[in-house]
């Protein structure tokens, strides 16, 4: 799936009952993420960390949903393991897990590993993570191999960047940005418009090339 593409609507069975994806997402943002298999160690930590930090996603108006090619019954039993291993998950397990035994959704959403995609018996989903906007368009895609678990702080950081730059279309966030630190003003913004857009000030950085393309602000 390419950034900007409309994520297809689908029906799925989940640990919290059947869903029609668009109805379930409603006007929220969504994080939909896959992982290779239930009852595996790294996946246990990933689903656990996503559950521990679920309130951070909620705060940002983001609904979380996991996907795996195992059976719904396995998901339900594995959730107990995840809760036991990650002791700081408050209350019930907070988000649904899709059961996709036939791998139909995995294929539709392009989450199958290239090496095994031709073998339906062994085809594993990779660690795909999609951030989907309220308009159902793909805003961000992360693909990690089975060997590397994802970082929830980074997922929240990119959501903060996506939501900020959706609200304020004349900026972009630099490398290692975190909320509150300086952002970059887009090159197409004219110098004469800066005081109105950023009344608290803009820093224009002098570069050896003499081109003033780095203009930063914390006024957002
Ligand atoms: C894991 O979650 O630990 C895992 C799953 C599949 C392959 C490698 C690691």
Bound molecules: benzoic acid
Within the largest sheet, what's the order of strands? 2-1-5-4-3-6-7
What name does CATH use for the topology of the largest domain?
Answer: Glutaredoxin
In helices, the fraction of residues equals: 25-40%
Assign the CATH class of the largest domain: Alpha Beta
Please identify which CATH superfamily of the largest domain we are dealing with.
Glutaredoxin
Number of helices: 7
- The coarse silhouette is elongated
Report the average pLDDT across residues.
Answer: 95
CATH architecture of the largest domain: 3-Layer(aba) Sandwich
- H and E string: EEHEHHEHEHEEHEEHEE
Distance between the amino and carboxyl termini? 31 Å
How is the main sheet built? 7 strands, mixed
Oligomer: single chain
Please give the domain count: 2
Return Rg in Å: 20 Å
Structural class by secondary-structure content = alpha+beta
Q: What does the secondary structure layout of this molecule look like, with pairings?
A:
Blueprint: E1 11-14, E2 19-20, H1 21-25, E3 29-34, H2 41-52, H3 54-59, E4 62-68, H4 72-85, E5 97-99, H5 104-108, E6 127-132, E7 138-144, H6 152-167, E8 171-172, E9 183-185, H7 194-197, E10 203-204, E11 215-217
Parallel strand pairs: 3-4, 4-5
Antiparallel strand pairs: 1-2, 1-5, 3-6, 6-7, 8-9, 9-11, 10-11
Residues 36-37, 40-43, 146-147 line the site of benzoic acid (BEZ).
Description of the structure:
The chain has 220 residues and is an alpha+beta fold. It is 28% helix and 20% strand. The protein has two domains: 11-151, Glutaredoxin; 168-217, Antioxidant, Horf6, Chain A, domain 2, CATH 3.30.1020.10. The protein has helices at 21-25, 41-52, 54-59, 72-85, 104-108, 152-167, 194-197, and strands at residues 11-14, 19-20, 29-34, 62-68, 97-99, 127-132, 138-144, 171-172, 183-185, 203-204, 215-217. α2 (41-52) packs across α4 (72-85). The strands form two sheets. The chain has a seven-stranded mixed sheet. A four-stranded antiparallel sheet has the order 8-9-11-10, with no helix packed on it. It is built from seven helices and eleven strands. Benzoic acid binds next to α2.
């Amino acid at each position: 799936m390419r950034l900007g593409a409309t994520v297809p609507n689908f029906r799925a069975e989940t640990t919290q009952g059947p869903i029609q994806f668009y109805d379930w997402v409603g006007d929220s943002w969504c994080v939909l993420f896959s992982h290779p298999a239930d009852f595996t160690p790294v996946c246990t930590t990933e689903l656990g960390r996503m559950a521990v930090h679920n309130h951070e996603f909620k705060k940002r108006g983001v609904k979380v949903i996991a996907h795996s090619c195992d059976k719904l019954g396995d998901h339900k039993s594995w959730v107990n393991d995840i809760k036991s291993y990650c002791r700081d998950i408050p209350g019930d397990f907070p988000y649904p897990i899709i059961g996709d035994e036939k791998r139909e959704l995995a294929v539709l959403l392009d989450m199958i590993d290239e090496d095994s995609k031709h073998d339906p018996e062994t085809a594993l989903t990779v660690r795909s993570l999609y951030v989907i906007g309220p308009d159902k368009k793909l805003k961000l895609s992360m693909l990690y191999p089975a060997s590397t678990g994802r970082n929830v702080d980074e997922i929240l950081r990119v959501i903060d960047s996506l939501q900020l730059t959706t609200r304020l279309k004349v900026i972009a966030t630099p490398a290692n940005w975190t909320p509150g630190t300086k952002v970059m003003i887009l090159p197409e913004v004219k110098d004469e418009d800066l005081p109105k857009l950023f009344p608290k000030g803009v820093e224009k950085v002098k570069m050896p090339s003499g081109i003033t393309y780095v203009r930063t602000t914390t006024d957002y």
